[in-house]
Design goal:
Layout lengths: L15 H10 L4 E3 L5 E3 L2 E8 L2 E6 L13 H11 L5 H5 L2 E8 L2 E6 L6 H5 L9 H7 L13 E7 L3 E6 L12 E4 L5 H10 L4 E3 L6 H6 L3 E16 L7 H10 L2 H8 L5 E2 L22 H10 L5 E8 L6 H13 L3 E8 L1 H9 L5 E5 L7 H9 L13 H9 L8 H17 L3 E14 L2 E2 L2 E2 L5 E2 L4 E2 L1
Parallel strand pairs: 13-14, 13-15
Antiparallel strand pairs: 1-2, 3-4, 4-6, 5-6, 7-8, 8-9, 10-16, 11-15, 11-16, 12-16, 17-20, 18-19
Length: 466
């Protein structure tokens, strides 16, 4: 992988890459398929009892990797804890309590109706952690995870490797893979060399300029699968207060050139909105078109010259992120805007965003629950911990809050999400969508049936290794 994990405590995750590892060790009550359907996991069935109550029948005979029995008390401990954690409450803060009518029934009681609760329960944040491990390990659970999943944790040597082994007591179909090791290698070219040398079986984000070679190779193959994650530029509204500057920047950026020339087609230009049309059709499209002459006119009419900005972006967090930053820098220079690049290590970069130590920032936000409304809630509601732009608008807060009671997938709910996007992108230029990512991996041909999910998890259930 391009970067190491930051935390293996699901409701205290730092980056989405944490979920990739969590998903091997942990399970939740419900799973989400790539076509948006819900499947049983640790719950075998569920029903909505009232506007604010959901009953889950739990799977019998499941044991945590430390030998503890899985039951409703474990569900209560994990979900009530997650609902109070800084990141966890963004997904599960609406859980008032979990009742335990019997060992194999868990009743979720919500503070208010929340239409996408099932979506949120599919995210690794809602993983069920061994209650014994939580009691005994405390904060060490972030380094020593214990769940019910198909793999159990072995060792984590920071910035070097993280290893898991097949859990012999797993309740479901056991994977054929004995051991999985995640090796952080930031540079794409170095990852590719390791793959070619046989040191690594699978790599994420191979160099795009090697895609053609990989496609024709007799030894390796490409894996390109859908991903629900837009990459965008955002503004800290406390430091870049003038919307004219923000719109001038937006009109100066050529998204198609970024995808075609830098990413070599590995991704889709975000020409229709922040959310990919695969997940939310925006009609008419939500955008600020590439128009450098308009950028120059906006700046001239406002009497603005010698505009200088700093873009904070990660080193090797996303595919060719630094290269894209350099292209944006060149595009802005053509309209008279000087852009300085502040490239930081992934963990440092993300903390800079949380601490609002930015003017402009580079970010990708995954819709891990499959619900675009979750991204709007967690990134753009005024009181969200992830509101990197410090965007505050009571009317938008009310629109986002209304999503909780509107049926997921309904025209009315989709329209509200479109209206919020239009405010963020077109009206206020709070963010500038660049492109929509895809899951992009390369593997040696001895590894078969390696798959990913739209929520960026890795599916090893059917993997075979020669």
């Amino acid at each position: 992988m391009a970067s190491d994990a930051q935390s293996l405590d699901p409701p205290n995750f730092v980056l989405a890459g944490d979920f990739t590892r969590d998903n091997l060790v942990y399970e939740g009550l419900v799973k989400l398929t790539n076509d948006g359907q819900f499947e049983p996991s640790l719950a075998t069935s569920w029903k909505q009892v009232s506007d604010t109550e959901w009953d889950f029948k739990l799977r019998e005979g499941v044991k945590f990797q430390d030998g503890t029995d899985f039951d409703s008390a474990a569900v209560k401990k994990s979900l009530e804890r997650a609902s109070t954690q800084a990141q966890g409450k963004g997904f599960l803060g609406m859980i008032k309590e979990v009742q335990t009518p019997d060992p194999m029934t868990a009743r979720l009681v919500l503070t208010n109706p929340f239409s996408s609760i099932l979506n949120n329960l599919t995210v690794p944040v809602a993983a069920i952690i061994s209650p014994k491990a939580l009691d005994e390990k405390g904060d060490k659970i972030a380094k020593e995870p214990v769940g019910t999943g198909p793999f159990e944790f072995v060792e984590w040597i920071p910035d070097t490797s993280m290893t898991f082994k097949r859990y012999s007591g797993y309740w479901g179909d056991k994977p054929s893979v004995d051991k999985v090791s995640f090796i952080p290698i930031p540079e794409a070219s170095t990852r590719y060399s390791a793959l070619q040398a046989g040191d690594i079986d699978v790599i994420e984000n191979p160099p795009p300029d090697q895609a053609a070679s990989l496609k024709s190779s007799s030894d390796f193959y490409l894996i390109t699968e859908p991903k629900a994650r837009p990459i965008f530029l955002g503004f800290n509204l406390k430091t870049v207060t003038n919307p004219v500057i923000r719109k001038a920047v937006a009109h100066a950026i050529d998204r198609n050139a970024i995808v075609d020339d830098v990413l070599e087609g590995i991704g889709n230009a975000a020409n229709e909105g922040l959310v990919s049309p695969e997940f939310l059709k925006n009609d008419p499209p939500i955008k600020l078109d590439y128009n450098p002459e308009e950028s120059k006119k906006l700046l001239k009419d406002a009497g603005l010259s010698n505009v200088k900005l700093t873009l904070t972006l990660p080193a090797a967090r996303y595919l060719k992120d630094k290269d894209i930053g350099e292209v944006v820098q060149q595009q802005l220079a053509k309209v008279g805007i000087t852009l300085k690049l502040d490239v930081q290590e992934a963990g440092t970069w993300y903390q800079s965003l949380l601490d609002h130590k930015t003017e402009m920032y580079y970010l990708g936000w995954g819709m891990s629950s499959g619900d675009p409304g979750d991204m709007l809630l967690r990134v753009f509601r005024s009181d969200s911990v992830n509101n990197m732009s410090q965007f505050k608008d009571p009317a938008v807060d009310a629109q986002i809050d209304s999503l909780a009671t509107l049926e997921v997938g309904s025209d009315e709910r989709n329209q509200v999400m479109q209206d919020v996007q239009r405010k963020l992108v077109e009206d206020d230029a709070v963010v500038i969508p660049l492109y929509h990512m895809v899951n992009f991996f390369a593997a040696r041909k001895g590894v078969q049936n390696f798959h990913t999910t739209t929520s960026e998890l890795i599916d090893l259930s059917d993997v075979t290794v020669d």
